Amino acid sequence: MTTLTHSGRVYKALEQLDSIILGKSAQVRLALACLLAKGHLLIEDLPGVGKTTLAQALSLTLGLEFRRTQFTSDLLPADLLGVSIFNKDAGNFRFLPGPIFAQVLLADEINRATPKTQSALLEAMEEGQVTVEGVSHPLPTPFFVIATQNPSYQLGTYPLPESQLDRFLMTLSLGYPNEKAERELLLGQDRRELLRGLKPVLEQATLEQAQREAAGVHTSSALIDYLQALLRATRESTHFTTGLSPRAALSLLAAARAWAWLENRSSVLPDDVQAVFSAVVTHRLTSRSSGGPDPLAVKGLLEGTRIP
Q1: Spatial contact of 24 and 60, defined as CB atoms under 8 Å apart
Q2: Quick check: 206 pLDDT over 90?
Q3: How many Cα atoms sit within 13 Å of 59 on the Cβ side?
Q4: Is 286 inside any structural domain?
Q5: pLDDT digits 0-9 by tens, 292-304
Q6: Residue 247 structural domain
Q7: Strands 41-44 and 144-149, how do they pair?
Q8: Number of folded domains that form the chain
Q9: pLDDT (tens digit, 9 = 90+) per residue, 264-281?
């Protein structure tokens, strides 16, 4: 397999991102793997821990067009997708695209919008297009949604339905920085100033080539055996209401391939599946007892599944 990691461009991108998002190299690497796998990313955490900064740093580092939409209770689907207006002079309708027509869309605080507006993202995230008044409009490529959401116990939030959650390849939580990173943050330059100084490290053509190479990473029959063992474990577990779907299985495989590519490997190893497993499946599994995700149960399931 021809890899771009040898050129140092991807590693340089990771280094630049790590210089902005301090002490979160694992989450940064997962976010990049999510993009390489052509997925979408959901970040759930408290305000002020760097969710928006990560989205901006990623788009600037990769040279992608970035737009941010603040999701609120009064946001309408047309505010996101765009509208068709009648051109009196030409005698026809003209489509005015909304903010969703960007390569990187930050859907900020997505769970503060109503379910109707949340669902406006479904077609875009699955098919790379939006349909307005019966006319389909293709979205730019690559198209990457980074959505943030506040914890569900906060006021004014609408839980994301399972169909919406399933459109996200990964869910991450940044959390508080460690003491060393926080001290560097307090003593260092303002993150907004650093963002203004960021230069693209990868060209779009290089990124698209990386996505193609990641999708082509070899998976052995033994690796598929391991992946299916994990799927069975989720489906046979009495802890979860339902197990992982075939689409979730494909998402897990795509993410593992992207992680293996970042590790400069020509084939996927069980370590690659394990590295992305929690990020890919936690938001897809609902605990019978709590009615929500259970990261500890997911971790236990992973640790309890033997590698064939």
Answers
A1: no
A2: no
A3: 22
A4: yes
A5: 888 999 999 999 9
A6: 217-308
A7: parallel
A8: 1
A9: 899 999 999 999 999 999
